[in-house]
Design brief:
- The N and C termini lie far apart (27 Å).
- It contains no helices and four strands.
- Strand 1 and strand 2 (21-22) form a beta hairpin.
- It has 52 residues and is mostly beta strands.
- A two-stranded antiparallel sheet has the order 1-2. The protein has a two-stranded antiparallel ribbon with strand order 3-4.
């Protein structure tokens, strides 16, 4: 099994967040409504899932 490197995440509302580290089995990042991304504001984490 491949392990992801430690990925810091401050979105504590996400179910994958455990002590400010992402524990998702994979990460998917897409553009945020633009055809190209020049800044991090133009990207979004598609892996986010709200904690239940």
């Amino acid at each position: 099994m491949n392990l992801l490197p430690n990925i810091k995440c401050s979105v504590t509302e996400c179910k994958w967040n455990n002590d400010v580290v992402c524990h998702a089995p994979m990460i998917q990042v897409d553009r945020n409504g633009s055809s190209t991304a020049d800044t991090s504001d133009q990207t979004k984490c598609e892996t986010f899932k709200m904690k239940s």
